Fold this protein.
Amino acid sequence: MAWEKFSSLPDSIKDELLSQSRLPSPLEMRKIYSAFQAAGREGQKDKGAVNQPLITQMALKTAEEKHFKNTISALQFDRLSQATSSANLWLDSASSTLPLPEKTKILTPHQWTEGSVKAWTRLVTPMAQAMEESATNYFLKFMGSGDYDYEIFAGGIPLPGINADRQSIIQNVVKTNFAIQLGSAIGEMSILTLASFDYGVRTVGGKAGALIAENLDAFAQDAQLPKEEAYAFYALREMAYARLYNSAPWIEGQICTLVYKYSRDMDLENSDSAPDTSTADFMNPSGLSNLVNLSTFKAKDSEGQKKAKESLQRLLTLVESWVDCVTWRAGSAFIPHISELREMMRRRRAEGEMTGKILAKLMGLGLDPKYLREMCAKWDKLSGNVEERDRLWSHPRLLSKVDGKEEEEGENGNDWDLDFTNLLKD
């Protein structure tokens, strides 16, 4: 096969061929054909819609390009551990939620990247399944079916592991592109992530979450604030998230349910931006990479998808605003620069850093800064009676007392009582 011949060439010759091809750069193409090589190895073992080993590989490769230390000093560990202990004590006066027996983990960016792949994969698996099915049907409709064998080239460079009929080719390309882009997005997020719950979902660290030491140090340096205050502020936020999700476990189940509801209506037939099959040339690297582009390969939202996305945005906004409110009330007496830290947090949200590249690209999800401030103010007004305020999390319908919005019942009755967690398991 052409790939076997290409693989046997010296690296210097492969780099020369890569540099002459119609590709971004030899380094980028080496990453791409390395990914396809991994896809070829893992493809036979991984029959699901998401190639988790490839996602992990791409995430770690991308993260490694952005970090230099990936170590935790004894001093960092001790100070962050003390910050989490103090945060739990401070939260006792600001929330009726109970502390967790588990300890918050202190991680490197590498550890967060590797550990969070499973959480992100589980969350987006329904979307990957819907995208693979929809994209395969879409392209087969215009390309026709057949039992012909193909070997795919990109810019004159053969790509391994894809030598099959058209349907298999498309499915493999869709699955592999999804894995490459999802892994790259996770890797890019590794430099921005300060704690496990930064994106409103538990990404790593277990029930008590995790803090990312190297990134917190960089954040404190950029903010020109003492590290101890940054540690304390983010420990408070992480503890607040962990305690809320532990006391109201329905929240995480509802997030997964809403992503599933959004995914089941995905259909590229309704897309204004679906790929042009007349230019979807497998001999062309851009045609290959654009088969599934998380930024552009997007169908119009159906009415059901709009409702699911609005419900998810509402839920994440209510959670984040509650955490913001509780963090402020718990830490204002202990963190001198908490106002500056809070404002920087709000700026990060406004700039989209805390929505997460993954949900933003897949669903167009974003949190409105103005609405977040309004909800935070409403939580603050309800804080005269902390127990009554926190009791509103005992059932989704009670949240209407905060924002005045009633959650509609779905086709199956009370959708929040449906648990899709098992559906999302590997």
About this structure: The longest helix spans residues 109-143. The chain has a mean pLDDT of 78. Strands lie at 105-107, 153-154, 157-158, 210-212. The two ends are 34 Å apart (CA to CA).
